[in-house]
TrEMBL record:
<feature type="transmembrane region" description="Helical">
    <location>
        <begin position="36"/>
        <end position="57"/>
    </location>
</feature>
<keyword id="KW-0812">Transmembrane</keyword>
<feature type="compositionally biased region" description="Low complexity">
    <location>
        <begin position="237"/>
        <end position="261"/>
    </location>
</feature>
<feature type="region of interest" description="Disordered">
    <location>
        <begin position="230"/>
        <end position="279"/>
    </location>
</feature>
<protein>
    <recommendedName>
        <fullName>YoaR-like putative peptidoglycan binding domain-containing protein</fullName>
    </recommendedName>
</protein>
<dbReference type="Pfam" id="PF12229">
    <property type="entry name" value="PG_binding_4"/>
</dbReference>
<keyword id="KW-1133">Transmembrane helix</keyword>
<feature type="domain" description="YoaR-like putative peptidoglycan binding">
    <location>
        <begin position="126"/>
        <end position="231"/>
    </location>
</feature>
<dbReference type="InterPro" id="IPR022029">
    <property type="entry name" value="YoaR-like_PG-bd"/>
</dbReference>
<dbReference type="InterPro" id="IPR007391">
    <property type="entry name" value="Vancomycin_resist_VanW"/>
</dbReference>
<dbReference type="InterPro" id="IPR052913">
    <property type="entry name" value="Glycopeptide_resist_protein"/>
</dbReference>
<dbReference type="Pfam" id="PF04294">
    <property type="entry name" value="VanW"/>
</dbReference>
<keyword id="KW-0472">Membrane</keyword>
């Protein structure tokens, strides 16, 4: 026996033929044009994502591919790039400059001019100082200046290795003058008067001297160009002294004209005073007081009464030209091998003793030769890289670590810049360490950026923070 129970209305079985079919076109494969549009959208999203990721990753980094003087710094932060450049470019590989004295001509005549003479002026001699911090700043701004397309193009060129930044290189004029003076000492030739020995007559011979200032100027210009090159040694002939027989007639014949032509500007119608020349023989550096300067220094024509203020002003100007400080060596100690690594070579400095120079001028004014010695004093470095054994550095005494997580990016950067300036600093026996002297000026020109600084105004218990250059260092 069987029976069929009716289904509730919600459970009615509907035949398939009565179900609504899919809309027309459902399940149709995309057309070729639609495929192209889809892939264009996917590619655009991928490129935009990659570009955004590229920009985000380089937010505080130098764009990839940038080089500084041939050293790749792309992908580095400014502080890490600066540390890398100090390791790779200290001492700075200066393009060699050659000083040359050519053959023949009146300048190099005689034995001195028989062949070309050359002196190589390399980095070890000129001790160049490269502005690595400025170069890092320029490298960081590659791809960050101009409009959007200009920035993208600059980043693309850098990525292909076609963007190199060259640091500004500075060489002390005093060091250059000393190098030129060393070469000048080899080529100088004194003049010789005519000599009569019986029936044998030896003609007068002009001398040969070097224009140290002009040659140094040419070398500095060549160094500033950043290219290797040859600079001619600027020389000139010096007139031979007159023979003893000719001196009386020459003096009597020229007494009247010289007195009348030189009288104006000097009391009593006296002839202009002869120039005074002071020379430092080891370096060949020389300075002269011409007639115009001597009129101001010796207004009455009496060497016993000098204008001390005018003379000191001139001599201090000389001192500024030839004086430069000594450079201490910077060292790194390897605790594993107990050895020292020289990060920066030492260099002796020099200074002009102003008081002794004034006394030398006084003495020269009272002599007929009108010459004297230029008292340039050598200044040895306190930390000499050639005498490391005398420092007694044999072990690592102590070390420390500081953490500053959670700090702003500018604060971290300023701390890294300041810490880099302390790398390798050696405090000599009996010396005093100065933090301010080591990091120098806290300024944008010295590599620091604006960050929060603490101002103590009136109430020391209520400090306030304000933005300022070199935040968290001062």
């Amino acid at each position: 026996m069987s029976s069929t129970a009716p289904l509730p209305p919600a459970r009615q079985i509907v035949p398939m033929r009565h179900l609504p079919g899919p809309p027309a076109g459902y399940g149709r494969p995309p057309s070729g044009v639609e495929y192209i549009l889809i892939w264009i959208c996917v590619a655009f999203v991928a490129v935009a994502g990659a570009f955004a990721g590229w920009q985000f990753w380089h937010t505080d980094r130098i764009f990839s591919g940038v080089r500084v003087a041939g050293v790749p710094v792309g992908g580095e932060t400014r502080a890490s790039a600066l540390l890398m450049l100090h390791r790779e470019l200290t001492p700075y590989p200066l393009a060699p400059v050659y000083l040359e004295l050519g053959p023949g001509s009146t300048e190099g005549g005689g034995a001195a001019g028989a062949a070309v003479r050359r002196w190589a002026l390399g980095a070890d001699l000129l001790a160049p100082e490269a502005d690595l911090e400025g170069a890092v700043k320029l490298a960081y701004h590659v791809g960050r200046q101009g409009g959007l397309f200009e920035r993208i193009f600059s980043q693309w060129r850098a990525f292909n290795g076609r963007k190199t930044v060259w640091p500004e290189v500075v060489v002390s004029e005093g060091v250059v003058r000393q190098a030129v003076g060393n070469a000048a000492a080899e080529v100088r030739r004194p003049s010789r008067p005519a000599i009569q020995i019986g029936e044998l007559s030896l003609p007068a011979q002009p001398g040969l001297d070097v224009d140290v200032a002009a040659t140094a100027h040419e070398i500095l210009a060549q160094v500033a160009s950043g290219q290797s090159g040859t600079v001619p040694l600027q020389t000139y002939s010096t007139a031979p002294p007159e023979s003893a027989a000719a001196e009386p007639s020459q003096g009597s014949a020229g007494a009247g004209p010289s007195a009348s032509s030189g009288g104006p500007g000097f009391s009593g119608g006296l002839t202009p005073p002869e120039p005074v020349v002071l020379r430092h023989e080891p370096s060949g550096t020389a300075f002269a007081l011409d007639s115009a300067q001597l009129r101001k220094i010796m207004p009455g024509g009496d060497p016993g009464f000098l204008n001390e203020e005018a003379l000191r002003f001139v001599v201090e100007g000389w001192a500024n030209q030839v004086s430069f400080p000594a450079q201490d060596a910077r060292l790194r100690f390897d605790d594993a091998t107990s050895s020292l690594t020289v990060l920066q070579q030492s260099r002796a400095g020099q200074r002009l003793n102003v008081d002794l120079t004034i006394e030398a001028v006084r003495r020269a004014l009272t002599t007929d030769q009108r010459t004297g010695t230029l008292p340039i004093i050598s200044i040895p470095p306190a930390v000499d890289s050639s005498r490391l054994g005398e420092l007694g550095i044999r072990e690592l005494v102590a070390s420390g670590t500081s953490y500053f997580s959670g700090s702003s990016a500018t604060r971290v950067y300023n701390i890294e810049v300041a810490a880099e300036k302390l790398v390798g600093v050696v405090v000599p026996p009996g010396g005093v360490f100065s933090f301010n002297s080591a990091i120098e000026a806290v300024s944008g020109a010295n590599g620091f950026e604006d960050s929060a600084i603490i101002w103590y105004v009136f109430n020391l218990s209520d400090p306030t923070r304000e933005p300022g250059r070199g935040g968290w260092l001062v």
